[in-house]
Structure formats: structure tokens, C-alpha cells
Amino acid sequence: MIVSIILGFILLGLVLLLALVLPSVTSSTVPFGVRIPAQYSTHPVVAEQARRYRRRVLVCGGVIAVMGVGSLALTRQPLLLPVSVLVLVGLWYGCFFLAHQEIRAAKIDGGWFEGLHQGVAVDTELRTNPPRFPWRWLAAAALITVATAIIGVLMYPSMPQTLVVHYAGNGGADRLEAKSVGSAFSLVFLQLGLTALLAVLAAAIIRSRADLDPARPEGSARWARHYMSLGAKALLGLVAMIDLGLMASSLLMWTGTVTRWAPLVIVVPVLASVVAAVTVLARNNADRGGNGEDTGLTHRDDDKFWRAGLIYFNREDPALLVPRRFGIGWTLNFGDPRAAMLLAGVVALIVLVITLRFRG
Amino acid sequence: MKALILNVDLTAEVPIYQQIRDQIVEAIAHGALTEGSTLPPIRALAADFGINFHTVNKAYDLLRQEGLISLSRKTGAVVTASAADQLLPSDWTARARTLLAEAVARGVPAGHVLQTCQALLDSFGQPQQEDKP
Hints:
- The structure holds two protein chains of two kinds.
- Chain A is mainly α.
- In chain A, 62% of the residues lie in helices and 8% in strands.
- The longest helix of chain A has 39 residues, at 217-255.
- The model of chain A has no long low-confidence stretch (mean pLDDT 88).
- By secondary structure, chain B is mostly helical.
- Chain B has a three-stranded antiparallel sheet, covered by helices on one side.
- In chain B, helix 2 crosses helix 3 (53-65).
- The longest helix of chain B has 16 residues, at 90-105.
């Protein structure tokens, strides 16, 4: 129980930290998901909204933390902590949306885009000489998965007849299953599936479209190339760490070790690598190669394609993966039917895993 | 080789296909594109710009008619710059006449016009002067 309480509060702290840091690591020409011309990025309205956003997020975080501690003291159940993380994410979006609306209104009222030349820049080299897929980073994940499978095959005869396949919140084993290939290698199958999924995603990032700043296309193109390769490596590094956690969990299961720290074996490497990946991408997120000669063009005003400031929806656009405007990394084009199919597939997978786990 | 970046002004009076065509011609002059360089497939370039397929198609078709690139299903769009004949096409002279007439009409001295032309030619940095017959 102590473990899940500590993890709950760590998660709450990380979400709060991300919410506070995010506005300062996003492009200065897209504050709170509103596209503005570069000369307005220091406008008083933008600065004022950033201040208010931070204050609101801090207040929400404080209230949620107090409520989390209160519910814990009253019910003695750590269950409410994951719920409070979700509530914080909801409130965070509310704070974002308030700032988004204000800046957007100021932009429309002030006619910030009037008389500007809106352009689009494309780096043709991304197509004729695309960045290389980071095979070495995939090799790490693949090696760990293969090693787990080999160790499993070697240990199979000596494994206990019943295997612990699920742990309760307090760290005790709450579900056992008879030894079989399906139960013993369940986590190896998970490793295989996740490695394949994230490798495909990394390949999609490498081939995705860059969003260049037409005012300074050359620096921007160099940055985009670097960021794509970084994003692919971050994903593959992440899956390598997840595979490592699954390997450790499998070893616990195969040796019949029951410990209250068992969930940590998987949670710690995953959380650590998520934090590392987000940090690396965030550090490279704000400075987008914005020095160099100004071509006199401004990025086109694409606000109408971003529903509620966050969700990209453009039926005309054949691209499935596009760079996020607020936040880190990439997002799907929900105007593309393939995005809906992909989401449905992921949901179906989660439902399948849950039903399989609770069937017995 | 320099990276080829195409930068299109959506609000300009010059049509987008013309802007793409002009920038590819300039890239060839600058040496950013040389004979044998490949251009992105039409569909990929249109998707990257977020513009209609036919717009890019029109730009590539113009370049093909001018003998600057060759288009084939197998190799895609490939620059064939120096394979074209060394003589200037007649419509080039017509366009140059209009441009020079603009300068004269504004009262710009002939020396200054020639200087500007030479500076522009030099800026392409191509060894064009030496290969005289």
C-alpha cells in the first residue's frame, strides 16, 4: 500500500511539473495552441495569460493534493490517487483552454495576421534523403526480448507448477495460474507486441512531415531532422526499458518470488524512461533553429484545423502523423479515417488484455 | 550539396506552381540541384506542402517541357539540367526584354542594369563563363 501511495503522489507531482513547464518549452509562435506571428510572441496578452495559467495550475494542483491526502486519511484506500491524477489532467486542460481562448480572441480582435505573407516551407531532402532509422536503438529492445525468451525456455522445466500472474494493490499475489506456455510467456508476448508497435511508430515519425518555419526555413529544417531522429530514439529507448521491466517481472514469476516490491520492478524503469524521454524531447522542443536570415514569410494561420486547440482535424491533409503544436512530440490527424481505426485497434487491444487477465 | 528548401508564399499573386518551378530553376542555377539529383515524388511534395496534387504536377510538367527535369514512373523526377541545348529559348528573350524594359522605363542607367545582371549571374556561382565554344 505504501508503494502505491508513493507512486500516486510521484505521478501527481510529475503531471503538475509537466503542466507548469510545458508553456515554456513550446514554440513561442504557438502559445497555448494559438498560431501567432513572431512579432506578437512578446505581446502583453500572451505574457499575462501565461502568468494566469501557471497560477491556476498551481492552485488546482494544491487542491488535488490536499484532497488526495484527505481521501487517503478518511478511507485508507489508495484507489483515489489515480483518480485524482485524472482529475488534475482534466483541470489542467481547463487552464489551457482559458488561456487559449483569451489569446485567440486578442489575435482576432487585433488582426494580428493582417497584411502578413503566409507561407509554407518544405525541406525536399526529407524525402530524397530521409533520416536513417535508428536500428541500434531497436536492437537493444530486440536483444532484451530475445534474451527473456531464451531464459524462459531454459527455465521452463524448473518453473513452479502455479505461476503468480497478478499482484494486488498491497503487493500480495492475488491470482495464480497453472503453468503453461501461455501463462509463463505472457509477458514475452507483451514484449514482442510492444516492441513491434513502437518500432512502427518510430518509423512513422522518421517519415512524418516536418512543420517548418517559413521565416527561417534552413535552421528550422535542421532542427526538424534532429528532432525526428531524437523522437524515434526516445520511443525505442522507452520500449527497451519497458522490455527490461517485463524481463525482470518474468524472472520473479518464473522463480516463484513473491515480494511486495514486485510492481516496482516494472513501474520504476517505465516511469524513469518516460521522464527521460520527455525531458530529452522537451529540452529540444522550444529552440527550433530560429536564428538566421528572415525570409519575410510567416507561418500560415492553421488554427482552424486544431479543434479545441489540441486535436488536429484536417480531412484534406493526407498526413497521418503531425507535430504537436502545444506539447511534445507528435499527434494524429483525426480527420483521417486511419486515425480512428488506429484508436479503435488500441482500445480493442486494451479491452482484450483486460478480459484475458480477469477471465480466470 | 546544399539542402533544397522550397518556400511558398500562399498570399502572393504569383501562382504556387510558378513559385515551385522558379525555386527549382534557381536551385539548379545555384548548384543545390545538379544533374541526376532526384526531386521528391509529386504526391509526397504535395502532401508536405498541404496543397493539391495537380499544383505540384503542373510545376513538374513545366520543368519537363523546359528540359530541366525528366519524369518517369521508374525513377521519378530527375534533374537533367546540362543535357538541354546551350541556346536560350525564344520565350526567355521575350521575358528578359520585358524585365529590361521595366528598368529602362524607370530610368535606370544601362550600366547599373548590366552590373545587377552580372552580380546575379555571379551569385549562382556556376562556372558558366569558361565553357564558351
